[in-house]
Queue: 4 jobs
Job 1
Amino acid sequence: MLKKLAIAAALGIAALGNVTGAAAQQRAICYNCPPEWADWGSQLKAIQAKLGIQVPPDNKNSGQAIAALIAEKANPVADVTYLGGIAADPAKDAGVLTPYKPKNWEKIPADLKDPDGNWFTIHSGTLGLFVNKAALGNKPVPQSWADLLKPEYKGLVGYLDPTSAAVGQLGVMAINLALGGTYDNLDPAIKFFKELAKNQPIVPKQTSYARVISGEIPILLDYDFNAYRGQYTDKAPVQFVIPKEGTLVFPYVMGLVNKGPNPDNGKKVLDFVLSDESQAMWGNAYLRPVFADRLSAEAKAKFLPDAEYARAKPVDLKSLAKAQPQIVERYRKEVN
């Protein structure tokens, strides 16, 4: 009898161990999935509710995510990563991603995915000026890149650090192209940022949504989706401006980490972010989903008119990625 009890107890402990192990595996680590950015907070909750997979929030930016993936290459911690499009091919070339073609892969436009499946676009945003009107006081809302150089905006302009953040690097290129530069010639942008440095800009490394909402950063080079969220969801005195010289539309991508600890859960997460439900959620968070038909008429009505967006051009990801090292080097040496 005692022997049977001992066997039963041992089996019970083994079963409990298996349950605990299974429960522990119901998670996926995503690098660069900040809950305050692009409404990742709602997506992470939906993944938990729909898939039973916990994805802890992670506040890295694209550059920090790739650096961590490379440092951990021999023993990966993450299962999936979310990156600004400029970082897609560099991540692939570093060998930190592995091919996976999620459900609905075939619907993604060819120029918005890696042909082998190392990365794919989930949504995009348009870069412009995220402005807290109340924090400006009596100063007018700037309407152009050139306006930011005016003395009246001294200490009021912010942009994310171009040496590491994808949005910072995009800002350099958007201004560069708007002012007559090319993907190979960064002189107009470097001249602009050197002039802007005289206006004492605020240059954070991390997403700074809350700092704009609070008025700490009155003007931030940022995406339309953050500004619309502030305006319509958080009811803050903010607005989005597409500079009159023009700007860029930028895709955000995801990929499966090579030899990540929970590949099956990682694949489920990647399937989810391209699902009709997730794509509609991105649209409701004021991003343009990669599947345009998932942007509801109600959500689209909150965007600036199409005539304004006509000044926003798609970025050439390969040319931007090629220019990335030069952006970082020249900004660090000549501006920072």
Job 2
Amino acid sequence: MESSDLLNSFDSQETQELEKCNSKNALDNEYAELREQVMANFQKPNLPNVNVPEKIIICLDLCYDDQNSLFRLGDGTTYTPINMLKRVLEFFIYSKYSINKRTEFALIAMQDDSTCFVQNFTNNLKDILNAIDYVNAEESKSETFDFQKVFQIIKREVEIPPYKQSECIIPPPYVVRMIVLYARSNCLPVIAQDDSYINFLKKQFYFYIDILLAHEEDCALYKCAEVYDALQDLDNGYSYVFEVSKNAAKIHDCIAKLLAHPLQRPLQKNTDYTFSSKF
């Protein structure tokens, strides 16, 4: 065998060994990532994986920063921020109701200087949609919004099923979920971490808080990052948190991801929305 053939043979062997090594490393990394996801889900409390009815509190922010900042659909149709939030809520409510007709909805309107309990829990779609359609947008003038006003309403109006370790495999009659749709980019949310009731809610296994932040596009002119960071204080480790600028397709995508039942979904960091095939 000539020297050139011998070198080519060595190169080929080295390439094959390198490919085997890379393949092994990839498998090891994939196994480690899968193990991490499994362990993270094991750390969740032992709750029944059942589609029990949900009582969903919609916390709708009525304030806007710029009335000329619009969502635009592919056909050129434009929507103001509040009208786009109303549109995606209608999609969410109809979809959630089709999954479980015992789902109930309530509406809390977050205004610039007040918070109102607009609609009590109902599974009558006409009532909740009329309530959402009834509220009007207003300009944001405040620098902060205190979420304690929201939690005071929840404390007064909402009963949360207790979690009992001895009965953890028995499904609760329902779970409560608060979905916050926040639309301000210059008004910082205030969530008091030393508030006893907020801390109480964060420890309730049958109470969940999800967040959808719809902020302005030019974050250099607004406090988008600060608002997003502040909203994280609502998360007790099991929340789903999404942020979107004036992107009509993405906000529909985000609201669709919130259709998953809190007792049946993984931690948000372990979600995978891709479609794959074994073939």
Job 3
Amino acid sequence: MTQAPAQDRGARSRDAILDTAGALMARYGYAATSISMISAECGLPASSIYWHFGSKDGIYVAVLERARIALLAALPRAEMAGADVAQRLDAFLADVQDAFQRHPHGLKLLLGLGMVQQDASAAAVAEVHRYRDALVAWAHAALCAVFGLDDRPQVADELARFTLRMASGTAVARWFDPSVGLDTGQLHVALLALAAHHDVPVRATPREGALPRDAADRE
């Protein structure tokens, strides 16, 4: 009878450690976040943290894994509704903005790769790569649907990585100004321009029987 309550307490302690560590690492980075900081913030002894995770690397891997699972579960399916490229791109960017707002720590944790590369374990670095690759794969599939790029995967990959770099840059800016938001208007313009640079059709196809815009204006 006592095993279940003990397991519940252990799960609550583990979640409290992960909540605290995720917030601290997203705010200060991996290198600047210590076990003592996590212990003081969550109110649990360092021995409990080591018992659950073994090391700071172990905490970082668990934090990243939980953030990756939560963010990917929140992302919509790659198919984008809309009659033309502009409408589908608006739908995609609205989804990106929504995920960015609801998961403020996610991209900041992902940016930790540069800070952990030198002294983190292979498991921590591998989890960062899994996190990043999963986001690229989702953005790739979504932008394939937006621009009709099923036969041009290299262009879709470039657009996906550009989108995530923009989002990452906004996450960096938030370290200095928490009110900064992702500028989807500028990103919309930039993605259309980048697609057009690769000769991807980005304008709506006129409806059958409709006059071109300049002809309609002359009428």
Job 4
Amino acid sequence: MQQHLIQCIFLASFMKICTGSDWCYESQHTCSSPCNGPEKWEHANKDCAGRAQSPINIVHRKTLPDERLTAFQFKNYQNSFGGLIKNNGHSVQVTLPHDAFVIGGDLEMPYKAVQFHLHWGNKGGPGSEHTIDGEQYPMELHIVHMKEKHSNLEDALKDPSGVAVLGFFYEESNRVNRKYDPIINALQSIRMTGTNTSLGTVSLEQLIPSQQNLTNYYRYRGSLTTPGCTESVIWTVFENPIPLSKEQLEVFSNLQFKDGKPMVATFRPVQPLNGRMVYRSGGAVVLASATLLVASIAMAMGLSQPN
């Protein structure tokens, strides 16, 4: 009995030693680098234990069509900008000029661009935050916007619908995506946490699929995917992925966390829906309707084969 008690005290002390005050991804957590992994993020910020957290697994057959989810208008996304790209210790982040904004998509007002950052796996392995029917993509881009009336992101996060994030998946391609050269080339200069470098001239438009391929998307209410996990985000997750070569995807894993470890698996596990609804855009509904229409015409013309 006494030996069992000593073991329990030792384990409790061990667990206390291995818990840090800072938050981290699961790939970072060891006793040599104590921090709060995703399952303990509420220790870093209580809001991370909320009931409307992100990311989520989107189950397509359970989504509801919503005709209000019309095509977005991407204003000034074509404008080129420079600026800095930074390794912030958890991701790479680029602050954006506020002249780019989005309209439509059932957003109540224009939302202006604030910054973008990415989440990835290990050497091109699974790394997206959101998943579709359980499928995890290699990487995910988040373009963060806030309501036009707010002057900073902190104020926008106090507004229950103050922030709108556009999420884009990446897929592995056999060809190099030259549109990403400014970002890929800059990564070698920001391997260490806290470093930044000038970003070659780039536009938001060149980083995402063409507008005609952005009519199919999902919508739900959620949160930031890092502490403080504030639940004031309107999420839009687009279906069509962005192509990058395996070599381009692997470059992100050369970055380092603040302890020098490879910056890999920088994603939060999916969170419970807790009764929230996920909607899909009218584009997806039109696509389905068109498929049915073609099938009906084929059958009427006797082009379908008998069983």
